Amino acid sequence: MPNEKxxxxxDQQGSIETFTRALRRLYGKEYLIEAIKPLSSLxxxxxRILSAGDAxxxxxxxxxxxxxxxxxxxxxxxEAIRExxxxxxxxxLTSYSSEIDPLNENVEYILDKNDFGYPDRRHKxxxxxxxxxxxxxxxxxxxxxxxxxxLKKSLTEGLTTQEQQEYENLNxxxxxxxxxxxxxxxxxxxxxxxxxxxxxxxISKKIKEIKG
Length: 212
Known about the structure:
By secondary structure, the protein is an alpha/beta fold. It contains 6 helices and 5 strands.
């Protein structure tokens, strides 16, 4: 069974079937490709993503509003994802790559869906994607080690203001993973869930302010 998850957000069923298969070929049997349709609002979709479990990469279709279900684009969702994890690989998968800023700061790579039809391009894409995900897994291991360091220090010496902020950020990522795998959360986890919802609401407000 695959033990690493790739999340693909797409609103068109035909594209889900086509590009889920394509991503499976790119990543191999080690990775589970989970396709999720967007919900109507960005905060709802972000919450759905957080609840789907720990992912090592996200693929987002740009035209998520094409079916009329969602009221945002893939680049909007990428910006929201960056608010809770600035290291996880995020990609835009689109047939309209010319409409997206190639220097978008929230994504690693803008993938043109048409490139999947060329074997030589698929090979180059696969090498780049696997390099990204391997780097991220190294980062996750470092995060875990750093969290343990800060936890031990908090119990003995206390943390500086900067270390406390770092500790809280790392703890949020850990809580996200726990909540995603627990069927019956404890009271403490339910409180963390409420806190997560507050964070999502804050993210949504920030994005609305930026967009004017």
